[in-house]
Amino acid sequence: xxxxxxxxxxxxxxxxxxxxxxxxxxxxxxxxxxxxxxxxxxxxxxxxxxxxxxxxxxxxxxxxxxxxxxxxxxxxxxxxxxxxxxxxxxxxxxxxxxxxxxxxxxxxxxxxxxxxxxxxxxxxxxxxxxxxxxxxxxxxxxxxxxxxxxxxxxxxxxxxxxxxxxxxxxxxxxxxxxxxxxxxxxxxxxxxxxxxxxxxxxxxxxxxxxxxxxxxxxxxxxxxxxxxxxxxxxxxxxxxxxxxxxxxxxxxxxxxxxxxxxxxxxxxxxxxxxxxxxxxxxxxxxxxxxxxxxxxxxxxxxxxxxxxxxxxxxxxxxxxxxxxxxxxxxxxxxxxxxxxxxxxxxxxxxxxxxxxxxxxxxxxxxxxxxxxxxxxxxxxxxxxxxxxxxxxxxxxxxxxxxxxxxxxxxxxxxxxxxxxxxxxxxxxxxxxxxxxxxxxxxxx
Length: 444
Fold this sequence. Notes:
Elements: E1 2-11, E2 18-27, E3 31-36, E4 54-60, E5 76-78, E6 80-83, E7 86-91, E8 96-104, E9 114-116, E10 119-122, H1 124-127, E11 139-144, E12 150-153, E13 156-157, E14 162-165, H2 168-172, E15 176-179, E16 183-189, E17 192-199, H3 207-224, E18 231-238, E19 243-248, E20 252-258, H4 265-277, H5 304-321, H6 327-342, H7 352-357, H8 359-362, H9 377-394, H10 400-411, H11 420-431, H12 436-442
Parallel strand pairs: 1-11, 17-18, 18-20
Antiparallel strand pairs: 1-2, 2-8, 3-7, 4-5, 4-8, 6-7, 9-10, 10-15, 11-14, 12-15, 13-14, 16-17, 19-20
Helix pairs in contact: 3-4, 4-5, 5-6, 5-9, 6-9, 10-11
């Protein structure tokens, strides 16, 4: 329906809390196009309605034959909406369309976008519209910034101001950050390049943290036997506010922690190990309902306990198994996670599956007393029990590792999506026995 899609993003010239977004494309049809802004982002299964941050969307004219947008002259018309996050546009076949809008970029977390005097952080899923059905077409994004500023992103760079993505999906899976100075550290595990960097003035990726990242990244690659990408970036924003938060992406993760006047080491290694394992467990081994992502609607799935629970359990275990943590340090973390479930949620009404479905309802905010269980903490507890059950039967010769390797072999690389029944089938094959009653007790 469209081609030659390109976005241009810049700090707003007049409104310091806004960015200005321009979008050009060529229409391949004649008629009506619906322009969709995502209502949620992968990694947080909650409607966020990013459209609430859009002032208005304008359709711009072109100045003579120059092809330049006539933004400042006021010669543009406001697009109408057909729903909260959809704008309607009449087009002619072969027409080059120019659109412009202002976006309020003050969501100071890993999944938001932020514009400040000396910092620009962009999650394109917040503000880049798309046409449903065209998510797999290539796109470009030009970002106007100070020419001397550093940049950190997994996107492929075309020139000093332009980055390219194989698809809209890749674009919105690739956060971008820039500042006058970003710290950066690189290492390799086999033929995989790793980068850790970002805005972190307090500790500037100290030696202890670098060593921990090297250890657990090498161990995770050995554990799974391969890595889905050739380069991976740990992006950091150590901010003034109290934070402990990360978002997974296929080729990168964004970690937001603060404030910088406290020791962030333990929090950083915990969230970084967790997010790295997500490269397998959800980014490339994905539930059927989430493959591909539908950004325009709620997507319900039963397997939140697999996506987040196994990742939470193994994320900590990797720190111990790789030598970052001692056995005593791991046991302290394990007991803390167990208590979060056993003391707060063990008697709650919902099962792991029910709370996974209800993520869209109350998974991240307040819930009724005694209702919800956490897909993170109960999920991690159940993953631990499953791991222990397999290890006990096979005298540690098998573990949950065999399940995840089998999942990667059958579903990895986004070959196809899996269901809860697929996971149970593979778990039973690894266990070499019937696990239906066990899953009924702990999952359903």
